[in-house]
Amino acid sequence: RRVHGAAAGAGADPADGKLDAKQFTPFVCDLVVDETRRIDEITAAFLAKLAGLAPTKASVASFRELALSGSLHVRLRERVANRAGKVLLGSQTLLEAVPQLKDRLDVAVQLITAETKTSDSQLVIRVQRWLPSLWAAEPTQTELTVEKTASIGELRQILASSTPGLPLERLRVSKPLLSTRREELPDAALDLQWSVPDALLVGESPWCLRDGTLVLFKDDAEPANIPTDVLARRPKETGIRITTRYDTPLETDAAQADAKPADSNPTEDKERDA
Description:
With about 270 residues, the chain is α+β, with helices and mostly antiparallel strands. The chain has helices at about 40-50, 60-70, 95, 150-160, 185-190, 230-235, 250-260, 265-274; strands at about 1-10, 20, 30, 75-80, 85, 105-110, 120-130, 135, 140-145, 170-175, 215-220.
């Protein structure tokens, strides 16, 4: 199989786990590998090929230096459009890690201090604070590893414990659609559901989190300041009235009543109608 387009997450700071939510560095290299090879073997093959490159782009050269330094863990992930998706576990074969494997698999290469996901029962998600008063998200995201069986309440507790000044009772979480791009968040935030029951499990319906999913959290006491241009872009809802063939508009009823002779006999009217 051809593993194509290995790319490094841009702007990642391995020291604090912060990500600046940008796309990727330019294309690095591609590999031809057997689907039965383990992910850690493919990682080693990638590093060997990287060592033989002489990149001209500064971003790729910087990534190469960090990756070959040996001080950081090199993690492989499926690349899904503009985000890093499923974490490929080093102990699995390529086919085990990617059951729907096809040629030219796009892989993202991420540098982290240590691997936090050790089994498929865990999820590596992105969390980012939403600031209602600015109607924008903070510029950085943080990766968080949680069990698929964790509840929304447990996720809130984890976020509250790592966010000074934001008590648990005011912390709310929401999940944008997977297809939502960074620049679309201000519009998407208008329809986010922040009242999520604590008993729901993060890995099950309706949330169904997976590796790379973005979760927003906010202070429920922070007042919202929605920009006028965001409101202007919101689709307008048009009210409609649905009637059946048996419905008679009220104004028609009134007109028919006015047209009926005042001295008409109701009994005779019924007999005539019959």
